[in-house]
Amino acid sequence: MTTSPKKIRAAILGASGYTGAELIRLLVRHPHVEIVLMTADRKAGQSIETVYPHLAGLGLPDLMAVGDVEWPGLELDVVFCALPHATSQEIIKGILHETGHGFVDEMIIERPADYANAIKGSVKVVDLSADFRLRDTDVYTKWYGEYHQAPELQKEAVYGLTEQYREDIKNARLVACPGCFPTAALLTLMPLLAAQKIKKDGIIIDAKTGVSGAGRSLREANLFTEVSEGMHPYGVASHRHSPEIEQELSKSFGEDLYVTFTPHLVPMNRGELETIYVNLAEDQTADDLRNHLQDCYQDEPFVHVVEEGVMPATRHIRGSNLCLIGVFADRVPGRAILVTVLDNLVKGSSGQAIQNMNLMFDLPETLSLEQAPLFP
């Protein structure tokens, strides 16, 4: 008689948000994961089916406030942090605190000693917030308006763009998953800049996203009558994903560069489309860009470069972990236009987080992410 391998015991912090719900939806079909803890302070005490009826009947634990969790005995293997920025830092600092003293901020949890007993050194953290994405903590302070609370952990955090940092992710204990806008832009542009197929100057990223990208908090700007039957830009010349994009593109190119990035909110639930305008390097054509991207991603399970003339659309990737990239020649000589689509809640967030978790536990990268897009 053979025994089943021990399952990975997972916690989801912030399970009542859209990314938390996507983590649940995807992980409940993961053959090697058991969800043993879900927190949601505003929904504490409720069952998940009360908050998300589509997740009923899955045998999941009730939602809890972080401060009410009885940590001893949980024996967690992985913690997904789907919390707002500035919230994750203190919590993750407690999880991975090298001296084992638990949370530094006792307002988050009143029993740091109990927490230290429950969390062992082998626990891994996959953070979906922005707290560990920016390598320079001064840049974080500039763009997020708060001092970083865990600068030592920032030094070891691995940027979780799977296709670019796969080997580093495998050995990490803290992975900072990229934002949805950076994921689409970086998968498209990093290989081209690294190979100097395009110039570093004049990159324009025109991005569109569904309303779920703004989170589930009650905000006037997200009301149906505010977003339906229209489209509008936001964060013009000031969106916090800009330094994240520039950080990784500069690293690929080998010197600092800047991009023009403008996001727009469109009246759909999920999905993201970026139209990216670039200047070609000398003697390069749009066909050269397409061929190079196809070579780079030919063995990737989730990033596909479409054939010439095919136009990627958000309806082609809805609900999946796919990213599709199209390349087109501009009518203006010396320029090209790239169109990239992904689901902001899956490849742009929770799906990529699970992809990274699979790597961290030496599992097939595609586990629980095999679903095809939902169409129509």
Automatic annotation (TrEMBL):
Residues 9-172 form the Semialdehyde dehydrogenase NAD-binding domain. Its main location: cytoplasm. GO terms for molecular function: N-acetyl-gamma-glutamyl-phosphate reductase activity; NAD binding; NADP+ binding. One of its GO terms (cellular component) is cytoplasm. It holds the Pfam family Semialdhyde_dhC_1. It comes from the Bacteria. It catalyses: N-acetyl-L-glutamate 5-semialdehyde + phosphate + NADP(+) = N-acetyl-L-glutamyl 5-phosphate + NADPH + H(+). It is found in: Cytoplasm. InterPro entries: AGPR (IPR050085), AGPR_AS (IPR023013), AGPR_dimerisation_dom (IPR058924), AGPR_type-1 (IPR000706), NAD(P)-bd_dom_sf (IPR036291), Semialdehyde_DH_NAD-bd (IPR000534). SMART domains: Semialdhyde_dh (SM00859). The keyword Chaperone does not apply. Pathway: Amino-acid biosynthesis; L-arginine biosynthesis; N(2)-acetyl-L-ornithine from L-glutamate: step 3/4. Keywords: Amino-acid biosynthesis, Arginine biosynthesis, Cytoplasm, NADP, Oxidoreductase. GO terms for biological process: L-arginine biosynthetic process. The keyword Ion transport does not apply. The active site is at residue 180. Its EC number is 1.2.1.38. Belongs to the NAGSA dehydrogenase family. Type 1 subfamily. Catalyzes the NADPH-dependent reduction of N-acetyl-5-glutamyl phosphate to yield N-acetyl-L-glutamate 5-semialdehyde. This is N-acetyl-gamma-glutamyl-phosphate reductase. The gene is argC.
